[in-house]
């Protein structure tokens, strides 16, 4: 009687462990799919792939003619802000080009190097601080397009290769853990059947 209860409890434990392992595998697959349709396209779409050093030539803030976040759509997040413009010398080609904060900045407003979020407080003070940092550093790291389809440069990529690897790390660990649980349960079942048969 005690043996039957023990076998039943063992089978329940194995079933729960299998469900946990399968759940982890399914969740990791869903995470892979979500990352594949949201983050990977932004990474592959970016043409600014080569890192170099840019020499800062001119930093200006246009207070009298504030830019608006206008991408042609009726967006309630549109608001006026001082327009920071940073001109740099691209050392790879020797051209004078506009420096943007990220790929997203160029899409949101091609006239300004930095586009603040509406939720940011003291936007003017922050833009002045960014301008001061650029003035103090004559050379800054930047990314440019080696193919030449984009003449502008960006200061930092939204999704660098290291960041993309970090994003894929968690679903990979979950997938590996789920497969390991399933494997261990199957091994345990095999050993139990083998010992019972003997």
TrEMBL record:
Membrane topology summary: Multi-pass membrane protein
Membrane-spanning residues: 20-43, 164-185
Gene Ontology process terms (BP): detection of calcium ion
InterPro entries on file: K_chnl_Ca-activ_BK_bsu
GO cellular component: voltage-gated potassium channel complex
Protein name as catalogued: KCMB1 protein
Localization per Swiss-Prot or TrEMBL: Membrane
Molecular-function annotations in GO: calcium-activated potassium channel activity; potassium channel regulator activity
Family matches, as PANTHER family: CALCIUM-ACTIVATED POTASSIUM CHANNEL SUBUNIT BETA, CALCIUM-ACTIVATED POTASSIUM CHANNEL SUBUNIT BETA-1
Keywords, in A-Z order: Glycoprotein, Ion channel, Ion transport, Membrane, Transmembrane, Transmembrane helix, Transport
């Amino acid at each position: 009687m005690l043996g039957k209860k023990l076998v039943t409890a063992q089978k329940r434990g194995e079933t729960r462990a299998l469900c946990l392992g399968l759940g982890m595998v399914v969740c990791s697959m869903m995470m892979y799919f979500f990352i594949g349709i949201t983050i990977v396209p932004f990474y592959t779409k970016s043409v600014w792939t080569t890192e170099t050093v840019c020499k800062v030539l001119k930093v200006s803030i246009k207070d009298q003619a504030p830019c608006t976040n206008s991408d042609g759509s009726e967006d309630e997040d549109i608001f006026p802000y001082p327009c920071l413009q940073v001109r740099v010398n691209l050392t790879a080609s020797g051209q004078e080009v506009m420096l943007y904060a990220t790929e997203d900045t160029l899409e949101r407003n091609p006239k300004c190097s930095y586009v603040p979020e509406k939720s940011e407080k003291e936007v003017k003070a922050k833009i002045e601080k960014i301008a001061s940092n650029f003035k103090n550093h004559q050379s800054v790291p930047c990314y440019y397009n080696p193919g030449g389809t984009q003449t502008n440069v960006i200061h930092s990529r939204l999704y660098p290769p290291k960041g993309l690897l970090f994003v894929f790390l968690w679903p990979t660990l979950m997938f590996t853990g789920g497969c390991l649980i399933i494997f261990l349960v199957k091994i345990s079942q095999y050993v139990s059947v083998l010992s019972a048969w003997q």
